[in-house]
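User: Hey, my collaborator sent me this sequence without any context and asked if I could get a structure. I don't really work with proteins. Can you help?
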Amino acid sequence: MIRSLFAITATLSLLAFGPAATASSDAAAEATSSIVVYRADESVKTRRINFDVHVDKSSVGRLNARDALVAAGAPGTYAIGTSLPDAEPLVLELKPGSTHYVHTRLRMVGNRVIVELVEVEEQVARAHELDPEFLTI
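Assistant: No problem. I've predicted the 3D structure and written it out in structure-token form, which is a compact way to encode the shape of the chain:
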């Protein structure tokens, strides 16, 4: 999980979803937003499925079962999607200093994997037993 945290932070800083240049690090911290994409509440069939998470068509990391990806960057509007076919992207409006939690709901229908990206509150993420390190950004 820590590997994912550093990989996502490094990747996003290379993309347009990076912190804006400011005079101090405190001002930069206040000007950034965070997104936590995680997986929880899965069946035995869906735990073996891994997929990439995309921010505006750019892959930012691979999401394994019971894992989370954390991204921090400039405020704005972003589309969060996956590499799985027929997955509808979730559009988020990020405001300065905000943290958004996205739960990926997976289910199997026959041989098809259906993924749904749902924005949830921090309390819901806590109820899903998300690792506390991802809740304190």
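In plain terms: The first helix runs from residue 2 to 14. You can pass these tokens on to your collaborator as they are.
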